[in-house]
Amino acid sequence: KDALAQVLENTPPPRKIGKPRLPVDRVFTLRGIGTVVTGTLTGGTFQRGQSVVIQPNGINARIRSLQNHNHEVEISEPATRTALNLHDAKSPAGEQGIQRGEVVTVPELGEATKMADVLIEKSNRLINSKAPGARPLKDGARIRVHLGSGNVAAHVILRGVRAVEPGGRVIAQLRFEEPIFSFAGDRFIVRDWAEQATLAGGII
User: Fold this and answer.
1) Is a pLDDT exceeding 70 seen at residue 187?
2) pLDDT above 90 (res 73)
3) Is the pTM of this model over 0.85?
4) pLDDT tens digits for range 124-148
5) Residues in Cβ contact with 13 at an 8 Å cutoff, skipping those fewer than 6 apart
């Protein structure tokens, strides 16, 4: 606890860049309240009455109320645990309701995509060279990408190499099997398709 407290003391305040995003890690419905989503807010603030959109499905909604650690607040700041009570969060025809891994944001920040250019880095700090994570990340491999609170299937297309070995870095393209919502600078983790090993990390 002392070590964590010391790190936090020396950590600069989270930046407000006018791009609020809340990766949804829980969603539930309360009688008389409606849809509630929770997550850790980044990039900006949310406030009561604000219009938002849930990506990647483009579900429009309005923030009816906000909570931080079970306390009602008017404004939620970056890096805080936030619960949003969403009004009129209606899914498009044929779509499911809000799911874990989706992102609450504001409409002017663009749309979801099924492709991203990335920098992938594979650690060389492997205790056991025979561990599943020590094997190369091969061009064309089907993988799982953990981004925010989401876990999305993708194929990785490496640029100029057939595989990323431990200690290697390479520019690549991720081609997702379903749309994702992300910004340049977002970090992610690559797991194998069976989710038995962590293969690499990266940045969009």
Assistant:
1) yes
2) yes
3) yes
4) 865 555 666 678 899 999 999 999 9
5) none
Report how far residue 131's alpha carbon sits from residue 72's, in angstroms, rounded to the nearest whole number. Answer: 47
User: For residues 121 and 146, what is the distance between their CA atoms, to the nearest angstrom?
Assistant: 15
Region 37-60 average pLDDT: 95
For the beta carbon of residue 148, count every other beta carbon within 10 angstroms.
23
Comparing CA positions, the residue from 125, 83, 129, 134 lying closest to residue 104 is: 83
CA dist., res. 24 & res. 41, Å (int): 9
Encoded amino acid at 177, one letter: E
Length of the chain equals 204
C-beta separation of 84 from 29 below 8 A: no
Amino acid present at 167 = G
Backbone phi, psi, residue 4, to 5°: -65, -40
Q: Is 98 helix (H, G, I), strand (E, B) or coil?
A: coil
For residues 75 and 72, give the distance between their C-alpha atoms in angstroms, rounded to a whole number. 9
86 and 28 Cβ atoms separated by less than 8 Å: no
What φ, ψ does residue 6 adopt, rounded to 5°? -65, -40
Q: What are phi and psi of 109, to 5 degrees?
A: -95, 15
